[in-house]
Every structure is written in structure tokens, then in C-alpha cells.
Amino acid sequence: MGIPPRGAKLHRILRDGLPYTVYTKLASVAGIEHKELARYVVIPQATLQRRAKSGRFKIDEGDRLYRFAEVLKAATDLFEGDKARARQWLLNPVRGLGGRCPVEMIATSAEAEAVLNLIGRLEHGVVV
């Protein structure tokens, strides 16, 4: 998708501004509309249009997109590469998250961490 998994390259791309092309790829891979992704990562439509013109996201916006990508990858791994099942899980309420949808928990690092922690527990068979 154009996002390095970790390390100095990831840090630099987030600091310099995540390219807008990553946003379009992310929406496509996730199987959701651009408008919905913007809502989940808390980027207003007017801002999204400005970023499309400039070609880059600001640091905080890119960070939220990175969190979405990280959660999407973890969910896809949880379902052994089945993107449809991962997408369904992300878009529906989950008991282990207090009945919230995982995609609605991307806006803050604490909420995204809760989703990733739940995925980790599910991968290891911990009852939630």
C-alpha cells in the first residue's frame, strides 16, 4: 500500500506526509468507499479534497491512516488472509470492544491499541 511496516522509513514518510495515493489504495484494499474511510480516520471531506490536490497528508492525518492500515492488516492476518471476513469483523460490533465496531476505534491511538490487543488475544485463543 506504500506504507513501510516499521522503522526509520516509516517514521520519515509519516513525518514528511503520507502520500495521498496511500489513501486510495487503503480504501480499495479495505473494500470501503473513500468517504467512509475519511469518516473512520476523522478527515473532513474538505480537508480530504485539499490533501488530494497537495498530494500529501499532515502528520496527524497520516498517523490515523497508518493506524487504520495496521488494524486492517492485523484483522486480515487474524482471518488468515480472508479480506472479506476481516472487513466484516471490522465493520460490525464486537463484544470484546464493548459492542463497538473496530473501525470506529481508529481515531485515537488508545482505541486502536485496544483493537490490536483484542486481535492478539483472539489469535492466542484467550477468552474475551
TrEMBL record:
Domain spans labelled Antitoxin Xre/MbcA/ParS-like toxin-binding: 74-125
Domain of life of the organism encoding this protein: Bacteria
InterPro entries registered for this protein in UniProt: Antitox_Xre, Xre-like_HTH, Xre/MbcA/ParS-like_toxin-bd
Domain Antitoxin Xre-like helix-turn-helix: 10-69
Pfam families (UniProt xref): Xre-like-HTH, Xre_MbcA_ParS_C
Coiled coil ranges: none
Protein name per Swiss-Prot or TrEMBL: Antitoxin
Organism: Alloalcanivorax balearicus MACL04
Species classification: Bacteria, Pseudomonadati, Pseudomonadota, Gammaproteobacteria, Oceanospirillales
